[in-house]
Amino acid sequence: MTVSEPGSEISSEVSIGTDTVDPDLIEMMDAVFAAHRKDHGAPGAVGLDTELWSTLGELGLVRLTGSSDHGGSGAGWAEAAELLAAAARHGVRVPLAEHDLLACSLLAAAGLPVDDTLRTVCVLDAAGTATGVPWAQAAGRVVIIFPVGDGHGHRVADVDAAALTITAATNMIGEPRDTVTVDIAVLQADSRAIDDALVEQLRLKSALVRAIQVCAALDAALELTIEHTCSRVQFGRSLSKFQAIQHMVADIAAEAALARAATDAALNVAITSRWTAANLGFLVAVARSCAGHAASVVVRNAHQAHGAIGTTVEHRLHEYTRAALAWRSEYGSVAHWDEAVTRAAVAAGTAGLWPLIAD
């Protein structure tokens, strides 16, 4: 995933996984978010920008991966990953992943109709509650997965948001992360049984979406840090000439590259196996673990390299560092994914550990 200086044009060819994404498509995505950022400035209190959402819809980006037979653009996850990265690079907060990659794709897989209404998705607990639901307060409908009463299996329902109790909340960068409550018994009549494999796919897709976004934020923080340390002069020479600063920037670059490599590896297998590879859960866990730990190093070093200016609201650094910290804790904490990697390694045993890592 190649990233240029935030707000600038990106390289002519970017590849994610096994696919090479059309450079013209990437350029168009980047231009849309750059123009929005230029016109609207830094994100404040985040709500759905209906004008931007309409523009993205007209360009075929709202349902980028949806089937062309049902109003989508027929693209794949490689293109969607570039779209998410472009939005993150420009500090634009919009529910593209939640609508297209999570909610609408789940409906399509379950054989349920999809229209242009903005959707998000959540999984209820046995009491009928889901917390931290992204963009529920902005959605017209919520795709809800809920457990069957006997504790075996799940069902899915596409529910009008007005029929739900939605308690508004946000994450640390102001994105809606709401609590959704509903009587499960009310959902039964208009629901459909869903295979447990689709529930597991949703879990992995949700986790990988956040890894992609974290990587884009880390890359942007790296670019800002390089720009700042090369241009800022201290004691008659640029900060980039000081060995301590060089070590900080090198650590940022190394950690961001590791997170990106792990995320690209998981995405590659997801794309080529259509989310069915036996080791995909392990690869997603590795990607989330690497991205989570990388965020700690990148955030610390980037702010140290920037000094006081990096803590100001006016400087863009916080848009990426705070976003990385917010996103790494969603759909599983760093500790959760560390434990998943550990469990997989222990289960593989001495004979299976190397094939687990190398495959």
TrEMBL record:
The keyword Transport does not apply. Keywords: FAD, Flavoprotein, Oxidoreductase. Signal peptide: none annotated. The keyword S-adenosyl-L-methionine does not apply. It comes from the Bacteria. Residues 209-329 form the Acyl-CoA dehydrogenase/oxidase C-terminal domain. Its cofactor is FAD. InterPro entries: AcylCo_DH-like_C, AcylCo_DH/oxidase_C, AcylCoA_DH/ox_N_sf, AcylCoA_DH/oxidase_NM_dom_sf. One of its GO terms (molecular function) is medium-chain fatty acyl-CoA dehydrogenase activity. It is an enzyme of class 1 (oxidoreductase). Its EC number is 1.3.8.7. Belongs to the acyl-CoA dehydrogenase family. This is Acyl-CoA dehydrogenase. It comes from Mycolicibacterium iranicum. The lineage of its organism: Bacteria, Bacillati, Actinomycetota, Actinomycetes, Mycobacteriales.
